[in-house]
Design a protein that fits this description.
380 residues, alpha/beta, Enolase-like, domain 1, TIM Barrel, 2 domains, ten-stranded mixed β-sheet, three-stranded antiparallel β-sheet, 13 strands, 39% helix
Length: 380
């Protein structure tokens, strides 16, 4: 079996699919997660395509190593392209052997994976209402973050206001529901430490990305100051960066993005590394149903999966429409759990018509970054 084509299917910034085809009629689908600059990933894919044509699709890790080690340049665009290709090759392998990807990666550790739902709101009342709805829909974990405009708050207002938000959600959903708070790297170490101390009483399952991941040492400073588990890693690109995070004891939960950090091959390695440190895994997943399906394949075959991020497939986080249409049938969701599929490969197939429709209407996204009240640039 040989690879005959590699196609870039850019549906929208948060839905960049990649299809790899073979001479035996088997094709695989993957997804690239460098959603801020997907056009850069397209450029990397064109170079990788030149190498892959004519190659054996079953030499999955070899191909990743060959391309990754080819040049001294690293980063999001290249890694996202490699991730998408890696996922597509696992999809091909599963279909070739008639087995789910999780089976080829060691077999199931669980039958289903608990998901947490993104909830948002223009104000605290709307946020609480949406959290309560998620619980009524069967979710036992919800995730939210700083309210819009909080980047313009002063120190005490920021800490107190966001702590009150968490308190409101906790009071609404009760202690039987886990709450997760995603800072999105928007706090300074000083703010993050104070915020964590203020909200320890609400017992969040984790605080995500309290400060920028550029410095594992600085994340570790926050982690060592609180009893709340710190979760981080969605912006990291490979197993080597996760090693530094773990050596610094910077988190108790790692958040690899399967569509950025090297696909299923590298994500399985990252999970194994985290297991050695007795650290849990909550895969990052802000993308399409393809990403969700791949995350579930990973969750199924690792012992230290804790939760799975779930966005409602693009309906809950303002991505401009329902992305469930890009697949014929998404991974099944039952009472807040994603069910591990038994179908070969990654378990889902794309809807050609919906994908082509999205490709026709795709537009280059503008760069929009929040600013503080003094005009300086804030983190997005």
């Amino acid at each position: 079996m040989k690879i005959t084509n590699v196609e870039s299917l850019l549906v929208r910034s948060h839905c960049h699919l990649v299809r790899v085809s073979t001479d035996e009629g088997i094709s695989g689908i993957g997804e690239a997660g460098f959603w801020g600059y997907p056009e850069a990933t397209e450029g990397a894919l064109q170079r990788i395509k030149q190498y892959l044509i004519g190659k054996d699709p079953l030499r999955i890790d070899y191909h990743w190593q060959y391309v990754y080690r080819n040049n001294h340049h690293r980063g999001g665009a290249l890694n996202a392209a490699l991730s998408a290709v890696d996922i597509a090759l696992w999809d091909i392998a599963g279909k070739h052997f008639g087995a789910p990807a999780w089976q080829l990666l060691g077999g199931k550790c669980r039958e289903k994976i608990r998901a947490y739902m993104h909830v948002r709101g223009a104000d605290v009342e709307e946020l609480v209402k949406n959290a309560e709805k998620a619980v009524k829909d069967g979710f036992t974990a919800v995730r939210f973050g700083p309210m819009r405009g909080s980047e313009k708050f002063g120190y005490s207002e920021l800490i107190k206001s966001q702590a009150n938000v968490m308190g409101a959600v906790r009071n609404a959903v009760g202690d039987s529901v886990d709450i997760c708070y995603d800072v999105h790297n928007r706090f300074s170490p000083l703010e993050a430490i104070s915020f964590c101390k203020e909200v320890e009483k609400y017992m969040p399952l984790f605080i995500e990305d309290p400060v920028k991941q550029d410095s594992a040492e600085r994340v570790a400073t926050v982690a060592s100051s609180t009893t709340i588990p710190i979760a981080t890693g969605e912006r990291l690109h490979n197993v080597f960066e996760f090693r530094e995070l773990l050596l610094w004891k910077a988190c108790r939960i790692v958040r690899p993005d399967v569509c950025v950090c090297g696909g299923l091959t590298q994500s399985k390695k990252i999970a194994a590394l985290a297991e050695a440190f007795q650290v849990g895994v909550v895969p990052h997943n802000p993308l399409s149903p393809i990403s969700t399906a791949v995350c579930v394949q990973l969750d199924a075959c690792i012992p230290n999966a804790i939760l799975q991020e779930y966005t409602g497939e693009g309906t809950a986080i303002g991505m401009g429409g329902d992305m469930r249409r890009v697949v014929k049938s998404p991974v099944k969701l039952e009472k807040g759990y994603l069910i591990v599929p038994e179908t070969p490969g990654i378990g889902v197939e794309i809807d050609e018509e919906a994908v082509r429709e999205g490709m026709k209407t795709y537009k280059l996204a503008a760069i929009e970054t929040p600013v503080h009240s003094d005009g300086s640039v804030a983190d997005s």
